[in-house]
Structure formats: C-alpha cells, structure tokens
Write a structure and sequence with these properties.
single chain; alpha+beta; D-Maltodextrin-Binding Protein, domain 2; 7-stranded mixed β-sheet; 3-stranded antiparallel β-sheet; 19 helices; about 40% helix; about 15% strand
Length: about 500
Amino acid sequence: MKARRWKVVVAALAGFSLVAAACGDDGGSASDTPVTVTSIVEVEVPGATVEVEVPGETVSIDPITFWSTETQPARLEITKGIIERFTAETGIEVVLVAADEGQLPSLMVANAASGTLPDVVFHPVDFTVGWTAQGLLNSEASAEVVERLGADTFSQGALDLVTVDGSAAAVPSDGWGQLLVYRKDLFDAAGLDAPTTYAKISEAATTLNDPGSDFFGITAATDASAVFTQQTFEHFALANGCELADASGAVTLDSPNCVEAIDFFSTLMESSPGGVQDVVSTRATYFAGQAGMIVWSPFIMDEMAGLRDSAFPACDECGDNPAYLAENSGIVPAFSGPSGSPAQYGQVSYLGITVDADVPAAQSFIEFWLSDGYIDWLSTSPEGKFPMRRGTADNPTEYVDGWTALETGVDRQANLSEFYGDEVMSTLIEGSNNFSRWGFTQGQGELVSAIYTSLPVPQAVADVIDGRLDAEEAAAEIQAAAEEELGLLADG
C-alpha cells in the first residue's frame, strides 16, 4: 500500500439528502432537499483525489470516507486521533463525516442512488439488517473482518443480532444493555435472592414495597409516550420469550408469552410509585433511597457513584458517602421469565462496509479501530461503551481488561471497578452474550423503527397498568397496531 500523508474533514449533516459536499462530489443531489454541511475542523482534503509520490511515479488515490453517528465534540476529537494514527501507520487517508443518527436511513438511500456511499459507516443495530436487505452493506466484507479478527473474540450476542444467512452483516464495535439494579444491602437484610427470574423479582418487589413509608419495591418506566418505556418493557418481554415476530416475519405480539409478560410487568408496577414514571423520576426515586430495584441503562453507573453533579445520589446514607448506592447495589444484566431464558435488551453499534467501499482499505480501518484504536474509542464513555470485542487470540481479555481500567464520570473521574468491584464489571461484559432485540434477526428492522416511532406497546402496557385493558386485550391491541404498520411498510 502506498504511503500517504493523512488529512481529515469532520462535517455535521442536516436535512435528508446527499452528503455530496462532504464527499467531494460535484454538488449533484439525489434529493430535492439540499443538504447543509457545516465544517467543524478545517477541511484539508474535502474527499478529493490525493496525489501520492512513490519512487519514479505519482499515483492518484482516493481517501476512504467514514460516517459516524458519534457527533459530540469530545468523541469527534478522539475519533480524529484514531484516524491520525491509522493513517500514519497505513498511509490510508480517511474523510470523517459526523452524521445525525436519525437521518442515516435517508442519507444512505440518497447516497446509494448517486453512488456516493461512505466506505465505512458507524451505526446502531437498528439499521444493519435492513440495510443488508436493501443491498447497501457488503456483508461478505464484514464477515471476513470478523473471521480474521476471530469470531470468538466478539460478544456472541452482538454477532447474533446482525447475523444474516449465517454470517455477520457488520462488525460489532461497542454497546450497552438494559440493567436491573437492586439494593443488595436491603436484599441481604431481607434474605432475598438476587432478582434473576420473574419469580424472584416479584418476591423482592412485594417484600420490600412499603408505600406508607415512601419506599417502593421497584421503580421502572411507565410513560406511554416514551421510548424508554418501550425499552424497559422489551427487556422483560425478551426474558419471557415474547418476540415481535417469528422466523417468517409474521407478528407474534399476541402470543401467550407476550400476554404473560404484559401481565407480569403491569402487576409488578403495583409495587412502583404511582403516576407516570419516566427516565428522570425513576432515577430520582432510586437515588433518594426510596426503591429496592430500578430498570435503567448502564449510564446510571457513574451517577450512582457520585461522579455527576446534575444527577447526584440523595439517599440518607449518601450524605456521608456519595458512592453509597454504587457500593451497595447489585446488577443483573439478564433475567428470565417462566416461558423464556435469560435475555437482555441490548443496543449495539456496528461498523458496516458499504457496497461502494474500497474493501481492503475499509477492512484495514475497521481492524485498526478494533485493535490499536479500540481502548481510545471505548474511553469516550466507558459506562455506555462495553467492548463487543473481548480481546485477541493471544490475549482473550485484552480489551475487557483495558476497558475495566478506564476512568469515567463528568464532574469527577474514577474507575467504576472502585465502586462496583471486578465481579460486577465481569458480569456486565458476560451479559452482552445474551443481548437481544425485537425483530432484527427476523428481518423486521423497518417494523421495529415504525413501532418505536408510534409506540403502541408502551401505550397498551400503560392502559393495563391503569386498569383500562387486561393483558390479553393489550396484546391483541399491539398485535393489530404492529400488523397495520407492517401493511403500511409493504405498501411503500
């Protein structure tokens, strides 16, 4: 590979159109809506052909383009540093484009139409299988990367989420899974087992629930208009084998497993604070020391340790020790219902190679990202970026060990293992092997996006909690809503 000087451009995209200006196109667009491209760092090579001097000749080689949904300035700076080191080592230049996650589907379609897809796209699991079905991703190229790096070095759950025809359609980078956090000190005092099953969760919730003393067995999202409620319920549903669709793609939300999950969750909420609960109120209740359990993302972990002033623990014991909740909470990543097996709602980000890519260069970039650049990337937010690649063949825990050693926090920095211990950190990583989501492995990624927009599931579950529907009626209602969405998608 010819050695070259590195240059990088970072751009923020707005609108639903072609990223022509960022990619060095002549300005033509596949859409009537123009795109706005705002420079964040100085543009040295705006996607143009680069002249490279080699002994006896000058060769023109295009840089590769990398789209990333990580648009925060601090993360862009770290990404830029990884690219700089990659280019210095390989001579491959990279044009970095920061794209809004919500606009990615339209941008991918528009750029595919004009032949200007990026070489590599960093994206959430929500899009991988759908893009593969649309012919936008080169799944064979990604599968080769996974094979070269070693499939056994990755989270099996992360690979399963994007497995199409037996191979990974994109390469797992990082992710997080929904957690059931519980007051281990109170569980131990009451002689309760860790809440790893529906039955143990229910027993703990009813045993600890004491609303007269302003204490509740559990706090979890019930807001009918919030995605957070969808994520929370889906966590419970997956644990009971309740799926959005079957292998043929047919909607199965009225299955006995789903009815059972709806009934369990709504009954469980009898041990939760009354009224609408959301991302803010649930955290506030747990942080005030007023709940035995909470369902939340791992982004709560640095906050429980007292590292973020805007979300600071306020329990009675926290006055003398702000990290009291972190030190006295247990964490269950995956649990199971009576009709299911251990499962955990997971959100994973992937590196996809597109059908327009310079495949060898794109593969080289991803391999660097997941090796020499990996710990730097995970350092951007360790509590929410679990390594989906564990290590190497020679050192199977290299990246887990590196991730565990990272510091996190906002107003103060510390290592999470100082508060939670090595066992909890290992549990978090092992939990990702059970990552699951509705619909993606059944090829219903578009349907997932649709129901996450219209939110019929949290609306129906809230109706059961409020006594307006029973579990069977709610299951029938969300089944009908999902089938209607599926019909609209089929009609285009």
